[in-house]
Amino acid sequence: MKKHKIYTMSFASVYPHYITKAERKGRTKEEVDEIIRWLTGYSQEQLETELDKQTDFETFFAHAPAMNEARTRIKGVICGVRVEESEEPLMQEIRYLDKLIDELAKGKTMEKILRKN
């Protein structure tokens, strides 16, 4: 089976779009980075290294130090697909990130985005 195109795209090529989407709605790069760190367990330094290396999405998520267990509480629709019903594990991880960035752009508080009780 052929890999989905996004799996082989560099994370760094999409990252600026996450920031642009957030900044258009008055949010910050720092908040985007916090979301990515929360989801993946990367430190800020590790995140920047992966961006510099032009790591593809598949490798970025495969090498994530500690995927946050609370990510399974992320629900909703991205690109017409319910994130919790995504059948491919890697695509689900990508959609989790997309959903979190979408919530940021829609003005949700970081506490709600990061699923803090």
How would you describe this protein?
The protein is mostly helical. The protein is built from seven helices and two strands; from the N terminus they run H-H-H-H-H-E-E-H-H. The protein has helices at 5-8, 11-24, 29-40, 44-52, 57-62, 89-105, 110-113, and strands at residues 77-78, 81-82. Strand 1 and strand 2 (81-82) form a beta hairpin. Helix 3 (29-40) packs antiparallel against helix 6 (89-105). It is globular, with a radius of gyration of 13 Å. The relative contact order is 0.18.
Please provide a brief summary of the model:
By secondary structure, the protein is mostly helical. It is built from seven helices and two strands; from the N terminus they run αααααββαα.
Please describe the topology of this protein.
Elements: H1 5-8, H2 11-24, H3 29-40, H4 44-52, H5 57-62, E1 77-78, E2 81-82, H6 89-105, H7 110-113
Antiparallel strand pairs: 1-2
Secondary-structure element sequence? HHHHHEEHH
Would you tell me the overall average pLDDT? 94
Largest sheet: 2 strands, antiparallel
Distance between the termini: 40 Å
Low-confidence stretches: none
Structural shape: globular
Helical residues, percent: 55-70%
Structural class: mainly alpha
Give me the number of helical elements: 7
Strand arrangement, major sheet: 1-2
Q: Would you count the extended β strands for me?
A: 2
Query: What is the C-alpha radius of gyration, as a whole number of Å?
Result: 13 Å
**How much strand?**
under 5%
The quaternary organization reads as: single chain
